[in-house]
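quick q for whoever's on today - can somebody do inverse folding on this one?? i tried earlier but teh output was garbage lol. tokens:
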């Protein structure tokens, strides 16, 4: 089962990830809520749409904008609507 781990703690796990461009997108219900805080950051992908971000917080440390999701993706990316992917040192295995 794919797991997202940061700072030695599992922050998400699910057998229902969707892989796009090598990134596992986890369903929102698989996230351990206490480790996420909404960010004001956003970015635009030409084919997926506008991404929003979360800060990941574990053991008092914050990994700013380490998770992203597409709340309203373009039609081509509908399969990842609301799902969350990771970077910035978050290990997915």
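ok took a stab at it. sequence:
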């Amino acid at each position: 089962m794919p797991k997202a781990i940061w700072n030695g703690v599992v922050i998400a796990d699910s057998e229902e990830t969707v892989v796009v461009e090598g990134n596992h997108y986890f369903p929102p219900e698989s996230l351990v809520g206490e480790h996420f805080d909404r960010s004001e950051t956003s970015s635009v992908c030409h084919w997926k749409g506008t991404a929003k971000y979360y800060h990941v917080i574990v053991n008092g440390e914050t990994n700013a904008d380490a998770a992203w999701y597409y709340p309203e993706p373009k039609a081509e990316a509908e399969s990842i609507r609301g799902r969350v992917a990771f970077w910035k040192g978050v290990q997915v295995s």
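fwiw The CA atoms of residues 19 and 85 lie 9 Å apart. also Residues 3-92 form a domain with the Metal Binding Protein, Guanine Nucleotide Exchange Factor; Chain A fold (CATH 2.170.150.40). so keep that in mind when u check it
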